[in-house]
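Each lists chain and fold; for instance:
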Amino acid sequence: QDSSDDIEDVSLFDADDDVSRRSKKSKIRHPVASFFHLFFRVSAIIVYLLCELLTSSFIACMVTIILLLSCDFWAVKNVTGRLMVGLRWWNQVDDDGRSHWVFEARKVSAQGGKSSSEAESRIFWLGLITCPMIWVIFAFSALFSFKVKWLAVVVMGVVLQGANLYGYIRCKVGSRRNLTSMATSYLGKQFLRQTMATEDQAAS
C-alpha cells in the first residue's frame, strides 16, 4: 500500500549550523556545486538542440542525454540542494510497504542567520524551475512534429527534472497536512475576530 501522505520532517546538518555565518549573503560560497547544478541540465538541453547537427547517430545522442540527465538528477537531489539551499529529500518504503516522504532541512543558527547565500538560492531555484519547463516545451514540440523517436528522451528529461522540482517544492513548503492545518488555523482566527467584532458592535 502506497501512502504519499505519510511524511517525516528530519532536521540534520547539526555540524553545519555555524558554517559560513560571517559570509555575505550575495557571495557564492559553493562555486563548484553551483557550476554543476547548471552544467548537467544545461548540457543535456544543448546536446538535444544540437544533436542532429553534431552527429547522425540517434543512439549516441540518446545515451549522452540520458547520462547527463541521470548525473543531474543525482547531483541535484543529493549534493547541490544540500549545499546551496540546505534542503534534501527522498522517498523510502518501510517494512509494511508504505511509502514515506522524508525531508532534511539545515537548521537556522541561534542568531537567526542563514548558512546559504541569496545568490546560490537564486541560482538553485532558477535552474530547478526553468529547465523542466524547457523539457515540457520540447515534449509538446516532439509530439506535434511527430518526432516519435525523440519523445522517449524528452519524457525522460521531464520525469527526472520534474521529480527533483516536485521533491524540493514539497520540501520547501511542507506537507499538504501542514498546509491544511495552517489554513484551518488561519480561518479559525479570522472567524474568531469577526465574532468578537460583531459582539463589540452589538454591545455598543
Notes: The chain has a mean pLDDT of 78. Strands lie at 6-10, 87-93, 99-105. Residues 31-106+120-196 form one domain. The chain has one domain: 31-106+120-196.
